[in-house]
C-alpha cells in the first residue's frame, strides 16, 4: 500500500477507531462474498444501520480514496459492494479479517 493514492491516510489511533466502527457494522451483515477485487456484503434494510454505513462510507472517501462503494436497496436488504483497484486486491482478505468478518466470507471469482 505504498503507491501514491493507494494507501490509507488515517493516523494510527483513528485507524483503530475506524476498524472498530466497521466491526460493529460488519457484525450485522447477513453474508459476504469475496470476489477478485471486491467484497459484496448484504445487510438487513434498517434505517439506523443504513445511516451508520453511509457515514462510514463517506468517511472512507477522505482517507482511502482508492476504494469505491456501491450501495443498493433490494427487497428487505441493503447490498454494499466495496471495490479496490486490481493492484490492491490483496488487501481485501486482510480488511475482512480486521473487521472480524472472515468467519462468514464466501470466496468467489467475481
Describe the structure.
This protein has 110 residues and is α+β, with helices and mostly antiparallel strands. The protein has a single domain (12-107), classed as Gyrase A, domain 2, CATH 3.30.1360. 36% of the residues lie in helices and 25% in strands. It is built from 3 helices and 5 strands; from the N terminus they run αββαββαβ. It has a 5-stranded mixed sheet, with helices on one face. A hairpin with a 2-residue loop joins strand 3 (68-74) and strand 4 (77-83). The longest helix has 17 residues, at 47-63. The chain is globular.
Q: What order do the helices and strands come in, and which of them pair?
A:
Blueprint: H1 12-26, E1 31-34, E2 38-44, H2 47-63, E3 68-74, E4 77-83, H3 91-98, E5 105-107
Parallel strand pairs: 1-5
Antiparallel strand pairs: 1-2, 2-4, 3-4
Helix pairs in contact: 1-2
> Spans of 5+ residues with little confidence (pLDDT < 50)?
103-110
Gyration radius, to the nearest Å? 13 Å
| Structural class estimated from helices and strands | alpha+beta
Q: Please count the beta strands (DSSP E, at least 2 residues each).
A: 5
Question: Helix share of residues?
Answer: 25-40%
**What CATH architecture would you give?**
2-Layer Sandwich
Terminal residue distance: 22 Å
Amino acid at each position: 500500500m505504498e503507491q501514491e493514492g493507494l494507501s490509507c491516510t488515517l493516523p494510527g489511533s483513528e485507524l483503530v477507531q475506524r476498524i472498530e466502527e466497521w466491526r460493529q457494522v460488519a457484525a450485522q451483515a447477513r453474508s459476504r462474498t469475496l470476489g477478485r477485487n471486491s467484497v459484496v456484503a448484504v445487510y438487513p434494510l434498517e434505517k439506523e444501520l443504513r445511516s451508520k454505513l453511509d457515514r462510514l462510507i463517506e468517511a472512507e472517501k477522505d482517507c482511502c480514496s482508492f476504494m469505491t462503494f456501491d450501495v443498493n436497496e433490494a427487497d428487505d436488504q441493503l447490498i454494499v459492494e466495496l471495490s479496490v483497484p486490481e493492484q490492491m486486491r490483496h488487501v481485501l482478505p486482510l480488511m475482512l479479517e480486521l473487521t472480524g468478518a472472515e468467519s462468514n466470507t464466501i470466496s468467489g471469482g467475481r
